[in-house]
Structure formats: C-alpha cells, structure tokens
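pipeline/complex-builder :: batch 7 item 3
reading input block
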Amino acid sequence: MIIADHLIKTFVRNEKKNKKSEIKAVDDISLTVREGEIVGILGPNGAGKTTLLRMMSRLMKPTRGQVSIRIGQTEMTDEIEVKRHIGYLSNNTKLYGRLSTRELLQMLGTIYGIPEETVEERIRQISEVLSMDAFLDNRIEKLSTGQTQRASIARCLVHDPQVYIFDEPTLGLDIISSAAIIDFMKRERERGKTVLYSTHYMEEAEYLCDRIVLIHQGKIIREGTPAELKERTKKDSLRDVFSGLILEEDGKTMPAAAGGSQERPGSMEGGRAE
Amino acid sequence: MNTKIIRTLVKKEMLDVFRDKKTVIMMLVVPVILYPLIFIGAMQVVTLISSSMETQNYRIAVDAKDEGAFLHKLLESGEADSDDETDSAYEITIVDADSVADYEAALNEEVIDVYVSGQMQDGRMQYDIYYLHSVTNSDYAAGIVMEAFNKLREEMTRARIEEAGLNVHEILEPIGYEKENMSSSEQSLGSIMGSVLPFMLIISLLMGTMYPAIDTTAGERERGTLETILTLPVSNRQLIVSKFITVAAIGMISALLNILSMGGIAFYIYAILEMQTDAGSFDMVMFAPAILVCMLSIFAFSLFISAVTMCVTSFARSYKEANNYITPLMLVVMFVGYIGFIPNLELTQAMAMFPVANICLLIKNMLAFKVDYGMIAVVLISNVAYAVIAILFLSKIYDSEAILFSEQKGSLQLFEKRSNLRKGGVPTVSDVWFVVAVTILLVLYVGSLLQVKYGLAGVFGTQMILLLVPFALVFYTKKDIRQTYGFVQTGAAGFLGGACLITGLYLINIVLASGLARLFPESAGNVETTFSVILEDNVLAAFVVIALAPAVCEEMLFRGLILHSLKARYRIVSAIAITAALFGAYHMSLVKFIPTGLLGLALCYVTWRTGSIYPAMMMHFLNNAFSVMITYFPEQIGQAVPILAKETPAFSDMMLLCGAGLILVGIGGYVLGKCRRP
C-alpha cells in the first residue's frame, strides 16, 4: 500500500533577474492505493500528473507532505527504503543502450541487494514470462521498440517491488506493445501488488482501473470507480465525464478562458514524446 | 557508505563508457597508434626530403672575373662531401652566366638555383649570392656555396699569412678557449623534460577525462537514463562518487597510456641518437623520485580535473551543449599549462595553491632535482581539496531538481536558422561564451601572427577581430544593437565621474604594477619588451592603435556584449565580477591580471551606473593614452610630474600616489553615485 499525505509541490520559476513566480504543480493531494488495486490518474496536460508520480516514487522531494509505503505492519518513509519497494516506469526512464538486458538486470539486482542466485533465478523467470530469451544478451540499443519496452518492464520487475508506478506507460506504443503492458499490470494486480498509473487513453483506463482519480491544476477534482463517475455525472463514457468536468472546473476558476492548461509550468512537466 | 553499490555502479559506468567507440578511440587509438604513426611518418618525410636534396643536381650561375679558383673550390667541396659517411652526394652544374639574362626571373622560374656575381671592390673581390629562401633547393644550394666561400677564404688567409712569413696558428688563434658543460646528462634531460612533460600530462589528462565526464553526465541525460538511475535505492552521494571514480580512473589510464606512448618514442629517439653519437647515458635511478611524484601528481590532478569537468558538463543537457561549456575550461587549463615553459618561475607557497600551475611547477622542480617535501604535500593536498569542493558542488547540482528535470533545449541560437530567430534583446550567455572562446582563439593565433608580421598594424588587426567576430553573432542572431552594446546617451556626470575614477585608478595601478613587478620579475620583463617594439612607430599611430582602437573594440566586447548579456541572466554583482575577471584574464599575463581586472571592474561599474558604454570608452581611452604618453615622452612627464618617471619609486612616493589615487577614485565614485540610472 502506498500513501500520499497532503503532497504539495511548488516550483519557483525565474521570470527575469529578480522577479520570481511560484507555481503549485501539485496542490495538496492525498491518495492511498491498496494492495491488489489499479488506480488510474487522469488529467489534461500540465495537470500535475507527472510531478505527483515523481514525488510518490521519490524522484522528487515534496515541498510539503509525505509519501509512505506500508507492507503488512511496517511503514516506511525513508527515501531509499521507499525506492526499494517501488517499480517506476515512464517515458523518461530509458535503458543503458550499451549494456545487454541480462547485464542490466544483474547490476540492478546487486544494487537492490538481492543475492546473486536469486537474481539469476528471477532473470530466468522474467525472461520466460516476457519471452525475452532470444534477445536477453543483445545490447539494448540493438533491440526493437517492442523488445525495449519488455526490457523496461523487466527492469521494474527484477526486485519484485510491492508498488508499481507508471507514468503514461502506453504512450505512443502500438496495440501489441501496449497490450503487453496492460497484461503485465493485470497480472501484478492478481499477485496482490499495488499499481498506480497515469494515462491519456480513456478506454484503457475504463477497462483496467479499479479506481480513477481525476486531477486538474494540481488538485483532485473527482475520484471513484469508472461506473461511479459515469453515474454521478450522468454521462455514458469516461471521455465525456472527463471533458465535462474539466470544462466545468475551468469555468469556475476562469470564466473568460476555458483552456487553463497553458498556464501550467510546461518546462517542469514536459518530456513527453509528442 | 555501501561500497558494494558503488562498486556495481562503477562497473556499470565503466562498461558503458568503454563500449562506446568514441571513448576507445580517444583513449587507446590516439596515444597507442596515432602518436607513433605520426612520428614514423614525420621521420620518413624528413629522410625523404633530405635524401632527395642530397642526390639533387644544383645549377649555379656564376658571373665573376675570378672564376677559376672559386669554381675549383666549389667542385672540390662537392667531392669532399661525397667522401663523408653519408653515401648520398649532390652534383653541381655550373651554368654560364651569360645565358642568364635576368637572374631574378631565372631563380623564380627555377632554371637556376643560385646566382653568384662577383666584382672587384676596394681592391678585393666581393661576391653576392642570390637565392630564394622560400625554395628548398635554392636555399640548400646557397648553403653549399656559402660553405665553399668559407673554405676559400680560410685557405687564402692562411696562404697570405704564410706569404708574409708569420705563424699561421699564432695569428689566427692568438688565444685558446673551450666551453664545457658541467651539468650532468640527467640534469640536461630533466630540464628539457621539465618544460614539456607537465604540459603534456595536463593536456592528456584533460583530454582523457573530458569525454567520460560528458558521457556520464550530459550524455546520461541526453540518452534519458538519468531518471532511470534516480529510481534506484541509491543515494545521491553514491551516485556521484561512482561517476567520479569512473571519470578519474579513465583519465588516469589515458594519461598513463599517453605518457607511455610518448615515452616509448622518446626512448626510441634516444636509442638511435646513442647509436649514432657518443652521448652520455642516463642514470635512470636518479629520476625515481621525480617519477614517483609524477605518478602522485597524475593521481591528484586527475581527481581535480575530473571533478571540475563533471561540474561543468552537469549543467548541459546534451553532448553538443557540454562541448560548448567545456571549451572555455579547456582554453583556460591549456593556457595555465604553458606555465612550465616560462623559465625561472619558482614554485612559491602561493603558487602551490594555484590549480594547474602548481602541478606544472611541481613536476618541473622534481625534474630539476629540487625537492621540497612540504611543497609536494601542499600541491597534492590542495588538488585533492579542490576536488572535494568540486564534488560537493556537484552533489548540489544532483540535488537540484530544477537542473535535473529541466527540459529546456540548449540555448545556442548561433546554430539555428536565422529565419527562426526572433528579433531584439541581447544575445544569450551560451552564445556569448561560444563566441568569446572563438574570438580568443583567433586573437591567440591569428592576432599574434599579425602582430609579429605587421607590428602596430597587426595590433589594429587584432582589435578588429575583437570587434567584428562578436558583432557577427549580434548581427546573425538579430539582436538589438543599441541594447547589446549600450549605445545610449548619458549626461556629463558619467564622463566626469569616469574621468576622475580612471585617473585615480591609474595612479593606484602604477603602485600595484611596481609591487607586482618585484614579485614576478620575469613576466614584468615581457611587458616592457612588447612596449618597446611599439615605440619604433610614430606617436599618432600609437594613439590610434593603442588608445583609441581598444577603447572602442574592447569596450564593445567586454562592457557591451559580455556585460549586457550576463546582466540579463545573472545578478549584476556576478555579471560585473565575471566580466572584470575575463577582462583581466584576456590580457594573458599574471602580472597584468590584477591591474586590468581592477580596470575592468571600474569600467563595468561605470557602464552599469550610467547605462551607457560611452563613459567606459572614454575611460579606457584615457587609461591607455596615459600609458602611451609615458612610453613616448618619459622626459617631459618626468619634468612635469617627477614621481611618475622614477624607475624605482620610494615607499613614501608610492603612498602618495596611492593616496591621491584613492581620493580621485572616491570623488569619481561620488559623482557616479549621483548618476540617475536609466
């Protein structure tokens, strides 16, 4: 179980010499994802999704608030401890092209402090599940996009983490490659793991998620199962729920202009392939 | 700290770096294959040229009445040479002088190699040898002719002395003398190596660390693996230490390979020389302490230089950007590395703390068999200490999310299409750094060449480089010329205050310069010689080139382009400090650094206070004009203001100058303080 407790992230942007403006990329978000649950984060560009996920995986320090992981009765808040139990994947987590997948996994195993024999055994299992035997010893830079994606999943799997955090994992992938990721998330849910992920694909979220969290301008605006969200807003599809809510929110804060997303700190949020 | 994690990370970084072809080429191929290849190639070219020269047939045209004796001698010298151990010989063809109508044309068309004309003058034969220095054959043939004349003259002298019934030996050599080299062959070798080796070491270490430093920092970011490694349960410090160990180790390996390769070549040359001549052999054991200290220096300097290069490259988001950032660093290190070539520069306590220079001087001293254990310790420890400081700074960078997750593209507009650039504003700092690096390189190489060849006109040419190269950037990137250079009107107060300030500073700088000249007598000598060269030209030209041109060109670069673009990005204090330091460093002299740095500071201050470059231009002109006047009219100035003309001013004079200077600076500062900033 991963718990985000009142997370706030402010970025200071240097506009010019002495002028500085503060932007709240994430504005007081609390969120709990339990074992055996997939939670999807939805929101327009610049809503703060990446920043939230980066904080929850401890890549970034929250300006205020705390992230903790609970396994059984033990609760961890230390940065290194939390990282040890998280598998994080985003479009910016590229692999070392000059190493082979096997070398990469062996190195990660040592860093996570897993005994050597266990690592070898796990590499064998992962390779079987993701059918990677054919290219396990090839340099990663030589692999195809689909193979690289599987190697990336293997990277998150090697330490068998309790929590998975994925930032738009299916962005720009073809149907086969994204199906591999979706299957993977479902499989891990069956194994009682905690999965938190962000996406722009409504159908995918509707099909996969136990719970959906809609965020906009750094705040949670709605939260619930796909069915609940549709019922409450009286819409047929999640797509309509989403656009309806965003327009409604923008109307509240800025009656004149509807597209508030441009006002967000794009430079800190970026890194998308689009 | 968990060493297992660090070991794993180092192993990964090493694998990553070594599997890159570029690194392997830089590290292995260059020293191990390229150096010997270049050397062997050069050797072969030299042998080829010299052998072709010696089997050459030289055509010599002689126009002289007294041809018989001379021609005979000439042919004889050709024969005499063929008796030498060198089996190659040259031939000489005497061309009839009557067939050569215009000897200059004949030389240029290479119909003949040398033209000799002789005629009676004041009762003796005077020969003129015409040749082309630029044509190898002609040059070589002229040498043969000269040699023949030397022999001829000697023989004739002997004959005449004998004719007069005198003792040839007593007349020609009334005294005997001989020069004997008392330094051991080890000392001679040490002094040669002492100037070359430190520079070679520093450059090879810099080159060796540069590539892995870029690869592990900017390269990692460019390839997108930085975020991956940040997801691991690894502390910031472990990450940096492992990267640092990798870079430093690769730097050391490549430095050692370089040294071994060059050492091998040197040994090879030495072996050949020893076979050919009876040069004394060396006692290598004597060099043991020097070699040991060299190794320790390589170790300490590689720590230092890797940490520094990594700090620089960590700000870059891509290879290209990192290369741009590292160019100025490289120039500075190379420039300081030349210090080993300066004779008689001692390793003092202060010098021992000065990075790069201290390593150079330490190795030089060790090779000169001057051992001071305290100094060795200071140099090594200071290098390690600087490395630690740089590493702490690096860990600050890796703590800064703003730098790590920044997605902005590199800001070099210079390489973008001109139509994509927006009009107005001042150039970006990265653009300015790049252009300043290019300009300084041009000034170093092209500028010094111009100055050697054309004197004052060359100095003027150098100033034009300073003006035009940066202007090309401003023009290409469509920047606002008025804003970039500060071409803004300003009131009389700015000029008045500026004039007071600069006069005061000039007086203070006289005192400073004489103080510094006592500390570094060698470098001070250099300054004087450069000025005496200029003295030969006329005063007006000197005023234009030395006072007016720098006032315009240097001001437009430093107080215009550099100051304004830095001001747009950093706080004004940092902008002024960087500009002034750069201006001091631009004068490329240890002695001049402090005075010119102060001058730069004053000029920056005035430009900032008034918002206009014109007062700074006037001040720069005044400052340089004072120097020109003192150089050209020492007597007149000595009569008017005796203190200024004294060779070694007394302490009281110095205090007086200093006091007057401070008062003037105070007045200037007060007036400028009243200036309304735009």
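note: The interface with chain A takes residues 4-5, 8-9, 11-12, 15-16, 19-20, 223-225, 227-228, 230-235, 401-402, 405-408, 568-571 of chain B (CB under 8 Å).
queue -> next item
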